[in-house]
Structure formats: structure tokens, C-alpha cells
Amino acid sequence: MAGTSGSSTEGSEPDGSTRGISVSAELTPLAIVATGLRRTYGDVVAVDSVDLSVTEGEIYGFLGPNGAGKSTVVKMLTTLITPSGGSCTVLGHDVVTGAGQIRLQIGVALQEASLDKKQTGRELLRLQARLYGLTKAEADRRIAELSSLIEMDAIDRFVETYSGGMERRLDLAASLMHNPRLLFLDEPTTGLDPTSRTFVWDEVRRLNAELGTTIFLTTQYLEEADELADRVGIISDGRLVGQGSPDELKRQVGTDVIVVKVASDLASAARAVSAVSQVEHVETAGDELLISVSDGAQAVSPVAVALDASGAVVSQLTMRSPTLDDVFFELTGGRIEVDA
Q1: Is the pLDDT of residue 5 over 80?
Q2: 323: which of 112, 221, 226, 253 is 20 to 30 A away, CA to CA?
Q3: Which residues pair with residue 32 across a beta bridge?
Q4: Which residues have a Cβ under 8 Å from the Cβ of 198 and sit 6 or more positions away?
């Protein structure tokens, strides 16, 4: 599957072209609507009654650790597997009865790129275009239009000679060959070096801003969801536990965090700061204390005094606002451990 789009929050004509006329959020159509979405494998519940909606023209970040159910949800939304329960429409078509119509309008770049290593980049892109009914001339035009994404100096080399970052770019270009309205990216930057990751981020922003492409992005990277997504859905153990804009979700936590790096007995230091009245929660992470407080500015001094009185050896003390990691912990009681 593959492509870019013409849908946007500004609205679109029946032929998919953007009108450049602002419409209210109430009138913006929904690209995805899922109600009670469920998937089981025997006695194992992989996805458990997920309700979510994605507005056309937005970047929706689907955040969770490995094994949480992200990829299973994507496979149902992209008609690769059928739900065990619930209902879902994508671009107005049911994922079970309208799978063919959905596949013609979406692009998909899964976590594991399925590229034929014995083809050149150009051959692979032309084949993808042909599968969607594009002529050779149309395919070559699309390749030229996607030249900022493709490594053009390597396009006539065999894919087996590509680096991981080059393969990921080529897979993304293949998913865009037929100009889809909705693009699914399943952990698109996992395993990429920082330069390639930044490139993918920039391309996601460009597709959304310039073409109005609706993007459903799964990730285990908190920073990625925070940087790119208009709204975020947080999934844990197959359940959607939170949904909203990154700022809305952080406000729900409503606490500042004092981070203390301790070079002495961490448990003793944690007990000392737990007794401070402004402290709401203390968590240990490596050699650090993560201290949740209602008002960071007022709590810093008493926390420092308590640490000093306990004899703790403090090498660093900083304060920060809540992050999506704090939101995830608040909602699930755990942290996302990113695979190396």
C-alpha cells in the first residue's frame, strides 16, 4: 500500500483537492472511527475494546510500549487482519465490508519494510505505482515529486546495498506513490540514527502541512509523539487509557517534577523527601529521584533542605514540567522502556 493526500482540516473537493477555505472543527470529517475494537488470538486479548477517532488532516500519535497492541490496531485499521469484535470505519468505509475501497485510498509503511532486495529503488517504486494503476509516465512523475524523500543517487542501485535509513525512506516513498488520503506509519523511526530520524520527522510535517495528509503514527518514542502529533492516544495492555493533545494530557497530570541525581543511599533520600508536605509522589529511576510536586517553585527549597538534613549526596537538582512519560506513568503506573 502507498501514497500522499489531498485531505485537510481546510476541507477538500470531491476530487480530493484542497479548497483553502477554513471550516469549523465540528464540520471536519473523521478519517477513522473505531468503537469497541477488539482482537483476540485464542485466549490472548491483544486489543481490548478500543474507542478512537481521527480527524481528517491531523497527525494522530498512537503511543505505547512494545507489545501494547499498537501494531495490531494498525493491522485492523489497514484491513490486514479482521477485528474479533467492535466496529471501525476508515475514510467512510467499513474495515470488513469495504476493505477494497480503503486500500485504494491509504498508504502504509509498516515497522518492518517489505522491500525486494533484488530490485533497484526505481524498479520497486514503478512496480508499486503499477499496482495502483499508474502509467510509467505517471510513475516517473511521482518519483520526481518524491525526490526530496528518495536517495536519488542510489535509486538505480539494488535495495540490498541500502542502509537501514535509506530503506526506511524508500518504503515511505513507496507508500506515497499513489497519493493516499491517509498514511499509516508504524514506528517509522525505530532503529534509525538521529539524522535519519530527523529527516522522517521533517517529511511527516511536510506531508501534513503542505498536502493535508492525515497521518496515523504509532511510536514508542515519547519525544516523537510530543514533537509531531496534534493528538495522542496512549495504549497499554491492549486498552486505550488516555487520549488528547500532548498539552492537554500533560495538564491532566498537573504536577511539576523535581529531578535529583543522588550519589549516596537513594532509598534514604527518597524517604526524606517523601515527608515534605508539597511532595505528592516519589519514584526512583537509576540514580535519580523523580519527585512530583504541586508547585515546583515553592517545593524546591524544602526538598533541598530535606535532602541536606538526611545527609544525601546530591550531584544535580533540576525542575521540569510534566512530560508524556509522566502522563503514561500516571495512567498506567509504569514507564515506557524503549528497546535499544
Answers
A1: no
A2: 112
A3: 54, 90
A4: none
User: Of 257, 333, 327, 256, which Cα lies nearest the Cα of 63?
Assistant: 327
Angle at 264 between CA 259 and CA 267, to 5 degrees: 70
C-alpha 214/C-alpha 191 separation (Å) is 24
The reported pTM is 0.77
CA-CA distance, 204 to 215, in Å (whole number)?
A: 8
Position 12 pLDDT exceeds 50: no
- Choose among 338, 325, 110: nearest CA to 220: 338
Helices (H) then strands (E): counts for the chain? 11, 14
d(CA 279, CA 255): 10
- Alpha-carbon distance of 213 to 229, in angstroms, equals 13
Q: For the segment 104-128, what is each residue's pLDDT rounded down to a tens digit?
A: 999 998 877 778 999 999 999 999 9
- Interacting residues of 202 by C-beta distance below 8 A, sequence separation 6+: none
Using CA atoms, how far apart are residues 76 and 61, in angstroms rounded to an integer?
Answer: 16
Roughly what angle, to the nearest 10 degrees, separates helices 194-211 and 164-175? 10
Distance of CA 318 to the CA centre of its chain: 28
The residues pairing with 236 across neighbouring beta strands, listed in sequence order, are 239
Angle between helices 296-309 and 266-274 (to 10 degrees): 130
Residues in the chain: 340
List, as one string, the DSSP characters of 290-307.
EEEES-HHHHHHHHHHHH
Q: Are 330 and 292 in contact (CB under 8 A)?
A: no
Instruction: Answer whether 62's CB lies under 8 Å from 217's CB.
Output: yes
